[in-house]
Amino acid sequence: MELEGVDGSRWVLAGPGQGGEGVELATAPTGLYDAPVKTIWNSSAYQIGASYGGANWLQRDVVFGVNVFESGESSWESVDSAWRKAWAYDRDAKLSVTTTFGTRSLHLRLSEQPDFKPDRDPHRKRWGKVTMTCTAGTPWWVEDDVTDIVVSATDTTAASETAYVRVSNPTDQPMWLKWVVSAPGSWTLPDFSFTADEHADRVLTLPTLVAGQDLTIDTDPMEEMVVAADGSSVWARMNGKMFLYAVPPWTPETLVPVTVSGAPAGASVQVRCARNWSRPWGLQ
Predict the structure, then answer these.
(1) Which of 19, 57, 148, 191 is the most exposed place for a label (fewest CB within 10 A)?
(2) Domain count along the chain
(3) In a domain? residue 284
(4) pTM of the full predicted structure?
């Protein structure tokens, strides 16, 4: 387990190299395992029991202690001060856990002041336990995005070309795809429902782009969906059409089509597959 502070400092809290900077993880941390959730149950008049109505994923509150001690030429007081400077109330530090499942990170900031209750003067013991109370606004343990890219080798100004990119979602959470497409040209991107319904093969054709209007697309309904590199309002030309579907949890690698027309050779599309997990390891 390693922490990257808001000031760029790095602290190995557990595992190989543990405590090399003078801080190590203490026992009994809370909030690091499954993401917090509150289920919703509804009942009508005279209904026996209740009916499941969904789930709300909550902020993740994490409380953990660290043992702070002198390290090398750094006194206890110096280490304690440096550790505090690694944290802020308005910026995120990054806590990463590396296991055989890979490296997943949680973005945390202080939600309360660090708590310190020494039995004796820590300057004499050259050691003290500090309790950190933190909040992750986004409760997921996040891995690096997995990407795939296709570059057109042909000129499609008078035709169209269809290629395939790979998407997958091994996580336990729905995954909203991100796309980066080049301009000029007209792109058609998949928005599959991944179920056997009328939207199983749904696609969305984007407005025709001119040079300089390379697009970044985030299909997450909580994010700005379409952003053009030149700041133009391409989204206003979508005629109300929107991406609707996330890639379901545990979706194996799947080839999905992308089509381009009206573009010179070298036109490109990149897909970015997020990796958001409920836990710091497992769940594949």
Answers:
(1) 57
(2) 2
(3) no
(4) 0.90
Please choose, from the candidates 102, 263, 268, the residue with its C-alpha nearest in 3D space to the C-alpha of residue 182.
Answer: 268
Cβ contacts of residue 9 below 8 Å, gap of 6+? 21, 82, 85, 86
Q: Are strands 127-136 and 102-110 parallel, antiparallel or unpaired?
A: antiparallel
Structure tokens at 159: 């035709």
End-to-end, the C-alpha distance of the chain in Å comes to 20
Residues 6+ apart with CB under 8 A from 204: 188, 189, 190, 191, 241, 242, 243
User: Chunked in runs of 10, what are the mean pLDDT values of the chain (284 residues)?
Assistant: 97 95 95 96 95 95 95 89 97 96 96 91 87 97 96 90 96 97 95 93 94 95 93 89 96 96 94 97 93
Preceding omega of 252 cis (within 30 degrees of 0):
no
**Residue 79 main-chain phi, psi, to 5 deg:** -65, -45
Name the one residue in this structure whose structure tokens are 């729905």. Answer: 174
Structural domain range at position 57: 2-139
Rounded Cα gap, residues 18 and 112, in angstroms: 25
3-state secondary structure 106-149: EEEEECCCCEECCCCCHHHHCEEEEEEEEEECCCCEEEEEEEEE
pLDDT at 2: 97
Same domain, 133 and 11: yes
